[in-house]
Design a protein that fits this description.
- The protein is an all-alpha fold.
- The protein is 60% helix and 0% strand.
- It starts with a helix and ends with a helix.
- The protein is rod-shaped, with a radius of gyration of 32 Å.
- The longest helix is centred in the first third of the chain and has 21 residues.
Length: 73
């Protein structure tokens, strides 16, 4: 008589035991304090540049392009 014979001879008890373990697992899972998505700060760079009277093309060529190059963007 092996260990599994006990469960084979008592299917109702086996079913109740399995349902009890399942219910305990579901309850434990719902009580876990786990966030679905961790809050990770995303690094960012904000740069404001102005050149009064300059055209958009001049700003793009003389200010934005060198800044992007220096910042590695």
């Amino acid at each position: 008589m092996g260990f599994s014979d006990l469960f084979i001879r008592r299917p109702v008890g086996t079913t109740l035991l399995a349902l009890g373990v399942l219910a305990a697992g579901v309850l434990a899972y719902r009580l876990l304090p786990v966030a679905p998505v961790p809050s990770i700060p995303i690094p960012g760079i904000v740069v404001f540049a102005s050149d009064p009277g300059a055209s958009p093309v001049t700003m793009a060529n003389t200010v934005a392009a060198p800044l992007e190059h220096d910042l590695g963007l």
